[in-house]
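Morning!

This is the sequence you dropped in the shared folder:
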Amino acid sequence: MKNETSQLLDFVTSELSKAGFTITPDINRVEGLDFLITAPTGKTSELQLRNIKVKEEESIKIQKLDYGQIAPHRFLGLVTVIEDAPRAFYIIPSATFTTADNVIFFEHPMEMMPHLSHWEIKVFTAAIPKFAQYEISNFYKA
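The structure's back. Tokens below.
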């Protein structure tokens, strides 16, 4: 069986390639950046890839310092994993974190200790319709 990271990358690569996108690792080691996504038009976006094991975890936390800057070309790729297999891929614009809805997306600023500041994404059954707007197919249209 493939290791988890390889399985996730294969899944994400497959999902992106369906629409002609290519994904390449960030060779410059930019903070908060894992991959560059290039659209068939040549437009390049930045992607930090994360996953959540839905049956084991209720949320994921993204450290602000680890994520880096909020920018229109920067996205968080979230893969939901169910029964050890990737099932869905969501591409969430970084701007989403600046307008936390306090239902799915939360911002936790720590003014006294800024290195602990983070965003949180909660994944639960009732949130699936809201997550639908971030499905990979909607990113193709962007």
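Headline: Strands lie at 22-25, 35-38, 44-53, 59-63, 74-82, 85-93, 105-108, 118-122.

More detail when I'm at my desk.
O.
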